[in-house]
Amino acid sequence: MQLLKYYLAFTSVIASTAALAQSDTVEYGPPPAWVTESERLAAPEDASGLFFIERQDALVHLDSAGQSNFVGQTYKLLHPQALQLGNISLEWDPAAGRPIVHRVLIHRDGQTIDVLEKTGFEILRREDQLEQALLDGKLTAVLRVPDLRVGDELEFAATTRTQDPSLRELSYGALFLGDVPPPGRIRLGLSWEDGQEPNIKLPPALTDIATRSSNAFDIRVDNAKPLAAPIEAPLRYALQRVSEYSDFARWEDLSAKVSIIFNAPSRLKPDSPLTEEVKRIAAASADPMERAKAALKLVQEQVRYIYVGLDGGNITPASADLTWERRYGDCKGKTVLLLALLRELGVEAEAVLANNGGLDDGLDQRLPSPAAFDHVLVRAKIDGKHWWLDGTFPGDYPPLVRPLLNYRWVLPLSQKGSALERLPATPPQLPLEMGLYEIDASGGFDVPAHITSTRVVRGVDGLVLHSQLSALTKDQLETGMRNSLASDPNWDEIESVDYRFDRMTQAGILTIRGTGKANWDDDGDGAYSMSLVGGGFNPPTRKQRPSDQDQTAPYYSTLAYSCYATTVKLPKDTALDNWGFNSVFDTMIFGRLYYRMMERRVDGTIRMVRGSRVEEAEISAEKAKRDNGRIDDFDNSKANIYYDPANKMNAWGQLRPVPASTDSVWLGSNPPCLPPDVAP
């Protein structure tokens, strides 16, 4: 779901709404009367880099009908790679009206060449990109400036208007200055007609260089100094030069407005064919959860996903009946369809706006804007507990206790208007990535081992894996894996390949069985050793920042959880007492838990588990400084097992039992990947 498209001009981004007649051609003409362009700043003799910005104006104007966006720029091209700037493109929604190109000029040796005298923009239509599940009706105009040379000054100016019929005259958007913009003159501006003044928010880094009048504000800067975001800081610290404007004063206002837009489409017509589906689901079970599961599965499996944004419908969903009739829809269409079914089935539910791109950090500190979200899903309340239902997922994904993605902030839609809601940043309960290996080397050191390798994937990667593998036949799967592993030195022969999806733990499980090398190292005098797959850790890097960055900002890590378990069946002709292994450990550093446990069993196996989970998404600068002093003591050894017929090896350390890697506990809801005192 795309609620808004940004128009990029290197250091500026403009998001907008308006309403105009349809047009699918480019217009040529002068700039509008409200535009006052900056004077050009001559490039110095020692200018370096790709290009020098002699002038770049990114201006937004609000009127009673919506919004216009002007971009005017002149670049001095200093490097051959800068010639790519001669590939000019414009993108627009034809429902918003045609873009107006004001000029494309080349300044060279005191002469001005009007590019538009000999060439023009070519219109590309992109509404047929169904292979990308995209149906947006957007148009793109491209112009390839001929005879462009290093040393030229390329000038371009154009004005566009955009439209969202859902929000009509309401405006919202952002203008920003990059952290390290190219040298030159940059201007960001917002102006408005009487009665159209929006809410405006300027960060401290822009406040000092902004000027304000009764109907406008301007930000002008020459050779802007770099202002890099603190290294490894949360995303909200990167918005140091972003100015926002919005006609929405509160998130509750946005929630109520979009709720109205979703209300009518999520109600069935009296003669809706979906009524029969509702009756079928209701007759099958009176349990609200079973009804919710059946409704969700219907939407997931019987309506294919296609992004639909025709006629500016970035926010307005197709009706539930229309989505069912054509059997395709985007997240908006699937959401209103699911809401309609749940309403008829007596299940309490609401639509919730979210951001799948991970750009929702610090949303509570920003002005309310539909552009903050790119997805919508359903949250149902069953027996007093919230469940998340996403109609865009495959049918194997049931209602979830928490969203599959780590949303920080969401906005529920309600008639009275809901507040922005923060979701807790809790560690994953189950590993997002698992590798389970059994190496049966009981035949001896020089005999190929029987190997069972199981890959378990959850979360977004698991969703992708399931989408790829669930559609394959067993023969297709086995043939594909044999071909892909043919050059892998660890496999001699692939005997079988199996894939299944576990609904209880939302895990894609790929198991490969075959024979291959056990990778023994011959240490001489009959001694051998082996490093177990996935058993070691790279040491964490120091958490430090350049002196000109915010030293108090916290450090951020993406919530992650991985687990590897290996069982080695030892050669039968060896004595168990002559086998040993290296270190085990249980430590926390930089908010991440590191755990490795190994065990020698009387059944002639050595077992290893290595787990790691980010326990804290953010740690303070003070804690990071303390942990910097612990890096030198970090155990980054591989998980090694040893055999020496001349030495008896004793177990050591605080050892705990390790189940065999083929034990079903690893695929259950509480795998022993972490110390027992750590909550799942």
Automatic annotation (TrEMBL):
<feature type="domain" description="Transglutaminase-like">
    <location>
        <begin position="279"/>
        <end position="388"/>
    </location>
</feature>
<feature type="domain" description="DUF3857">
    <location>
        <begin position="69"/>
        <end position="208"/>
    </location>
</feature>
<dbReference type="InterPro" id="IPR002931">
    <property type="entry name" value="Transglutaminase-like"/>
</dbReference>
<dbReference type="InterPro" id="IPR038765">
    <property type="entry name" value="Papain-like_cys_pep_sf"/>
</dbReference>
<dbReference type="Pfam" id="PF12969">
    <property type="entry name" value="DUF3857"/>
</dbReference>
<protein>
    <submittedName>
        <fullName>DUF3857 domain-containing transglutaminase family protein</fullName>
    </submittedName>
</protein>
<feature type="signal peptide">
    <location>
        <begin position="1"/>
        <end position="21"/>
    </location>
</feature>
<keyword id="KW-0732">Signal</keyword>
<dbReference type="Pfam" id="PF01841">
    <property type="entry name" value="Transglut_core"/>
</dbReference>
<dbReference type="InterPro" id="IPR024618">
    <property type="entry name" value="DUF3857"/>
</dbReference>
